[in-house]
Amino acid sequence: VKIQALGSLVDPVEGAMEGGWWGTGLVVDSDGLVVTNNHVVVGAATLKASVGGKNYDARILGTSECLDLAVIKLDGKDFPYFDWYSGDIKAALEVWALGYPNVGDREFAITKGIVSKADTATDTQWASVNHAIEHDARIRGGNSGGPLVAANGQVVGVNYAGDDINDLNLAIHRDEVRAVFDDLAAGTDVLSLGINATAFANTTGSGIFVRGVESGSTADKAGLEPGDIITRMEGVTLATDGTLADYCSILRTHGTDATLSVNVYRPSNGSTYEGQFNGRTLTTDSAPTAPSSEPSAPQTELVVIKDDAGVVTVQVPATWTSIDGTSFTDDLGNQVNDVRASTDLSAFGDGWAVSGVIVSASVDALGDYTPDSLLDLLAAVPASGCTQNGTRQPFSDSVYEGSFEYWSACGGLKTEYFIIAALAKDGSHLIWVQIQLAEGDDWVLEPIVNSFLAVY
Q1: CA triplet 439, 440, 444: central angle to 5 degrees?
Q2: For residue 190, which of 64, 68, 98, 282 is within the disulfide window of CB 3.0 to 4.6 Å?
Q3: Which CATH number characterizes residue 415's domain?
Q4: Cα distance between residue 378 and residue 356, in whole Å
Q5: Could you give the CA distance from residue 69 to residue 48 in angstroms, rounded to a whole number?
Q6: Do 324 and 260 share a domain, yes or no?
Q7: CA atoms within 13 A on the CB side of 195
Q8: Has residue 88 been placed in a domain?
Q9: Closest residue by Cα to residue 399 from 335, 338, 334, 449
Q10: 419 and 317 both lie in a single domain
Q11: CA-based Rg of the chain, rounded to a whole angstrom?
Q12: Of 315, 199, 193, nearest to 262 (Cα)?
């Protein structure tokens, strides 16, 4: 089945696009139920399907963004259909990929190969599949959602991802598809909030790029829009490995009906938002931002660092290799988990010329401090060598509530200094973040602010 979609999507590279795209599907019963990929259909305003040269209207019944699966229904009956492979799927099984690849005349094509791995867990930009088939029957864009068949024409899997450089081709295992097919056909979404998702990780950070949003879905009701970037859910920074693994793990752990905190960056207006899926709709976040009208370009990749106890995490530039995760006891006897990083921690601690960050958190400190009293104490450091900019401002994200302050011209240089002090919304601990950014490093502020977290 060649599936033709018409609608509006936002591409991470091309930007907003209105028009058509296509993919492949497979008819699995005579009434016109078709299995395809989620990324082929979500975000489409209209769907048409071509079977045997005849066009049919189609409607979406159910989707799964984590499994990259969807079931659609053709407006017709008495369709020829595929059977599922009845034998064991083993390595070296000969297979054929059927579909409409985005090459040449874009017409029906068949490629042949063998199964390399019969059952493997695979995380990609588009899915997090526990049971996938790795094979070498070449697939390309347009093959998405098409069948991978054995010599008898029975379906062993549904193709969903390929990598031409590494000759890697992936299909969702027959058993994974059949396990959720009845729910999808009945109109029940599985591991899905209603987005067409692409994970990314680069020098500017990581997240889930929202290419499209299903009307009326959980994501739509929360206020998510095409082009948004989901940066955190339930306090977890998403896609640090460039895949949907963390996003889907959260959905598997909590379920799609749970109230889930979320942080979103909207490139179209440069704003950050926080809210909840199945709860509060998105509202503008209150967090520090670099004041420069032209922030410096990212210079390096980001890495996640932790304190020695594994309690505190934050994203920092990969070049900040001078790291200390030692906990300490403060003057009031409170145990503090702490991680700090810089290109040179000694120079960072002794002056204003070197960038760095300190993230500290404590349960014990709840009895002695509030976010504002902590900020009063910490402000003594920049107050001695910097110029304060504005007044104390409220800080809020999906995990913390507190305050922040900002200073500039530290030590007579173009160095900026930020302090955030906040209380976890569940009341479990206090956290405070001290960020010093030398000239040219203001781009580091956003990933630090979007990623700091303590888990007790």
Answers
A1: 110
A2: 64
A3: 3.40.1000
A4: 16
A5: 17
A6: no
A7: 30
A8: no
A9: 449
A10: yes
A11: 25
A12: 193
Residues 11 and 42 in one domain: yes
Q: Are residues 349 and 433 in the same domain?
A: yes
Residues 138 and 58 in one domain: no
CA–CA distance, 338 with 364 (Å, rounded to integer): 14
Model pTM?
A: 0.70
The residue to which tokens 């030590």 are assigned: 411
Structure tokens that stand for 81 in this block: 């259909």
The CATH number of the domain holding residue 172 is: 2.40.10.10
E-assigned strand segments in 249-311? 260-266, 271-277, 283-284, 302-306
Can you give the residue range of the structural domain that contains 225?
Answer: 195-284
**What is the full per-residue pLDDT of the chain (456 aa) written as tens digits?**
999 998 877 776 666 666 678 899 999 999 999 999 999 998 888 999 999 889 999 999 999 999 999 999 999 999 999 999 999 999 999 999 999 998 767 789 999 999 999 999 999 998 999 999 999 999 988 999 999 999 999 999 999 998 877 788 999 999 999 999 999 999 999 999 999 999 998 877 889 999 889 999 999 999 999 999 999 999 888 999 999 999 999 999 999 999 999 999 988 887 889 899 999 999 887 667 665 445 555 667 899 999 999 999 999 999 999 999 999 999 999 999 999 999 999 999 999 999 999 999 999 999 999 999 999 999 998 988 999 988 899 999 889 999 999 999 999 999 999 999 999 999 999 999 999 999 999 999 989 998 999 999
Same-domain status, 306 and 446: yes
Residue 296 lies in a domain: no
In this structure, is residue 183 part of a structural domain? no
Please give the full DSSP string across 315-364, using - where no structure is assigned. EEETT--EEE---EE-TTS-EEEEEEEES-HHHHHH-SSS-EEEEEEESG
Following DSSP, what letter does each residue of 14-45 receive, concatenated? TEEEEEEEEEE-EE-STT-EEEE-HHHHTTEE
315 with 364, same domain: the answer is yes
In a domain, 170, yes or no: yes
Q: Name the domain count of the chain.
A: 4
φ, ψ at 305 (rounded to 5°): -115, 160
> Which residues are the active-site residues?
39, 68, 144
